[in-house]
């Protein structure tokens, strides 16, 4: 082979090898989906092979970070129920209790809008007073009864890999291309170093 051609092709070939190596590594995140045996080597994509383990460890981390720190309880405490309780008190008094009271013989004649308005204020205040303890009880019961770890683990373990691959490729498309190009650049540099070594050691004569 012509010496000059060899010197030119060497960096290009190593650049192609570097790009291909990184491209294959990226593809092996999800492929092959099922284990393949090549001679004595069992080959399967990283995510399919580790999906169950990823699901278990992710669920454990989420459970530890959320439940042990009572984050659900903290977030529920932040909910401002005032406007909702006011609307609920208005609906209960004016649309439910009021009509029933006015339908009672004799007593109904004494029930006017002013009386119902007072009932609404009392009802809203009572509901507001009970809301705090009720929210605490609901949050505590939720943390105690819901197996969040199992729920998360099952969902991650059952997540469709085709959909996950599409999402990852869409989100990390630019980063994947950078990795592939970086492989080509590194391969090209290695090829140039090889050429320099060939020349320096006299392995190639012009």
Verbal overview:
Helices cover 76% and strands 3% of the residues. The chain is mainly α. The longest helix has 33 residues, at 113-145. Helix 2 (46-66) packs antiparallel against helix 6 (148-157) and helix 4 (82-102) crosses helix 5 (113-145). The protein has one domain (3-201). The protein has helices spanning 3-27, 46-66, 71-77, 82-102, 113-145, 148-157, 161-171, 173-201, and strands at 36-38, 41-43.
Question: What's a concise summary of this model?
Answer:
With 206 residues, this protein is mainly alpha-helical. It is built from eight helices and two strands.
List the helices and strands and how they pair.
Elements: H1 3-27, E1 36-38, E2 41-43, H2 46-66, H3 71-77, H4 82-102, H5 113-145, H6 148-157, H7 161-171, H8 173-201
Helix pairs in contact: 1-8, 2-6, 3-5, 4-5
Rg over alpha carbons: 34 Å
Strand content: under 5%
Number of domains: 1
Average pLDDT confidence is 83
Count of extended strands: 2
- State the shape: rod-shaped
Order of helices and strands: HEEHHHHHHH
Distance between the termini: 12 Å
Major β-sheet annotation: 2 strands, antiparallel
What proportion of the residues is helical, as a percent range? over 70%
Low-confidence stretches: none
Number of helices: 8
- SSE-based structural type: mainly alpha
Strand order of the largest sheet: 1-2
